[in-house]
Fold each of these.
Amino acid sequence: MVDTEDHATQHRLALEALIRAEIKAAGGQLRFDRFMELALYAPGLGYYVAGTTKLGAAGDFVTAPEISPLFGRCLAVACREVLTALEAHPMHSRNTSTSTSTSTSTSTSTSTKNRKAKAGIGNGSLNRAAISSQSAELQASGTAPSSGADLLELGAGTGALAAELLASLAEQGPLPERYLILEPSPDLAERQRQTLSARVPALLERCHWLDRLPAQFDGIVIANEVLDAMPVNRFQIGNEGQIQEVCVGIDRDRDRDSNGDGDGERFIDRLSESASPALIQAVLALQSAGLATQPGYRSEINLRLAPWTQALGTMLGTGLILVIDYGYPRAERYLPERDQGTLMCHSRHQAHADPYRDIGLQDLTAHVDFTALAEAGRHAGLDLVGYTTQANFLIGCGIDALIAEAAATDPMAMLELTAGAKQLLLPSLMGERFQVLGLSKGLDELTLSGFSVRDLSARL
Ligand SMILES: C[S@@+](CC[C@H](N)C(=O)[O-])C[C@H]1O[C@@H](n2cnc3c(N)ncnc32)[C@H](O)[C@@H]1O
């Protein structure tokens, strides 16, 4: 225990030293997005890239795929709808020429057509009974029915969602041709490989880890709790109504002087009167909608969201991007009473708002502005398929039926599944705090069951 704590302290001090050096080199302060980028992703030291447990009961926080397999099974319903639509789409053959930069790459030799013939699937009309009876055999041989389109998961955490999606799609088809994962954390990528090897060994050959987005992609992109981990910029409205940028500076700390921790220095907020032009423009846009106007109002803006969405839109030929995260439509995210913003830190299942505590050992997050995501999607040439709460989405995907189906074969599973469903669905837990937004390209007729219960797009 002492060794572990010593190791954690060394890790924190090394990352703090790196950030302090960058602040000093920059003349005394850093914009918050750069601080957050270093705290989370500095090579070898950032929270996500160093070897701490992070996700799960033994880590700092749990995500929906960790809470219950029902989350992945519901998303498999949505994936099935898209993969089936793509099968019928004339452009889906383009996928075979998709160019990727993979760090792990094995390819299947059986052609998609052959697999479909073997599994008895034609034109997206699934014979569920036939497929179920074949699934064990097919999964064991690694040649389950395949759709010809790919699935790309951004930031796959422990690999729990990937494993559940692949297992579900192997059972009822169609499988994605390849399951691509873009994961900036080498540590998490290794955990994902272990999870997939243990859970779906016969499907491992379909899994490929990327070090950047593919140039072209047809299929489904899933990002669960990725946007909240993207570095944000912070702003404050000054007494005269001016827009200030909340940067990170250094101050002397007598406590730290006396115990020799951190070279006697600590990180502090430093208000800059010269906010970046991009931040000023974004805050002015909020203010033109009557938001974030009162002196002292402080919040965050994710300036990286639009370029990220643009990159996905450029990459996507035909398919769907599904983003799930905690957040609000803009008018709610920047409510006057939310005047201290949404920046939160997660460590050992405790949440607090001090980003300068336990640097490198805690997650930093900010709520997503889903209106900004929908707007960025439109600018990137993407269509809004739907927007709703996680609870509505999972109910629309048939979470009740999935519980009943699982309980029919294993009554003992019922209790655990019901407890997991409560966490995923209850408004006070994840049901309403988490939202789902779908963006598509080239699939004009696409409707997803997940958005059928209550589409809240009008609130964006
Ligand atoms: C809060 S975790 C969520 C993990 C997983 N999706 C889940 O739901 O359990 C955030 C994940 O996003 C990854 N990540 C952060 N920025 C990313 C980016 N720009 N592209 C892809 N993944 C990213 C992190 O490394 C981590 O795996």
Amino acid sequence: MSHGTTGRYLRGVTVGSSGGCGNIAWVLTSQLCKHETLISPALLGWSDRLRPTWDPDGSDPKPLIVHRKMWEWLFIAEALSERNMLVRGRRGLGFGVGREPLVALFASFGPEIVATDLDPARALAAGWTDSGGEYADGIEGLNDHHLCPPEQFAARVTYRNVDMNQVPSDLGGFDFTWSSCAFEHLGNLAAGADFVVEQMRCLAPGGVAVHTTEFNVSSNDQTVESGATVLYRRRDIEALVKRLRKLGYAITCDFTEGNTSADRHVDVPPFSETHLRTTLGEFVTTSIGLIIEKPSAGSGRLGRFLGRGERSVG
Ligand SMILES: C[S@@+](CC[C@H](N)C(=O)[O-])C[C@H]1O[C@@H](n2cnc3c(N)ncnc32)[C@H](O)[C@@H]1O
């Protein structure tokens, strides 16, 4: 690899925000949350677009907040943008959206969005309404920061209750799907992995899915296997990657860990301003982002090769 950027690989794409050469560009691959990626120009650009969510009066001199949640949102936005998904004419489907700003952000670029989350009774029972910041129960509250002009938001975004453990069969033909910090909450490791496989049905040929979840940095052996939040080990992700590839989907995963002081800091209460890793039970956790591509109808051997430019492969 002559290119100095970790977590990216060369593949054939319709060039998006990160530029490139002709139809070939360096694009993000599935990877762990790292400070290096967070402060890359591409993600900084998205951070600026999301500034109203973390710096409402625009007075904060920081270029971004060093938080893995922010990394997840910026990673998803960049992965979709550089694959030319955030444009008019595309259709996107978000799962477990809570009150995340991505719905409004994506709609502001032109795609039609179907935003989904648990039904209110189950969200209440599971405690998702407690914090006031993690569950929207409808379209209101998904454009709080005015990331999308209201009339465009109203025209492009619809909302629906969907249980990620039972993805309805009529949800199909989307160009992209995404979820942030959601599939680790489906009861156990297998349920989350099944969701990732199942939701690929919602994509049209050539579509792309981007999902973030919890990654166990401290053990590839013991982990939290069931409960309100589960923790995926490297071996769980490798098994999922294998399963997805067997079904014909393209996914490449770079398990390189960040090695800056921000990456190494394990943030525990009282939380600091550097929160890329924290603990869950006895384990250290960070985020992982998965990018999974469904082959386009006419993709031949060259297309498959370009779509799988391998790096440190999981
Ligand atoms: C930690 S919050 C994340 C919210 C949002 N994605 C974000 O990044 O801020 C987890 C979300 O997953 C949703 N969720 C949990 N279990 C779910 C299920 N079985 N089906 C659909 N959504 C679910 C919750 O309602 C909540 O909105």
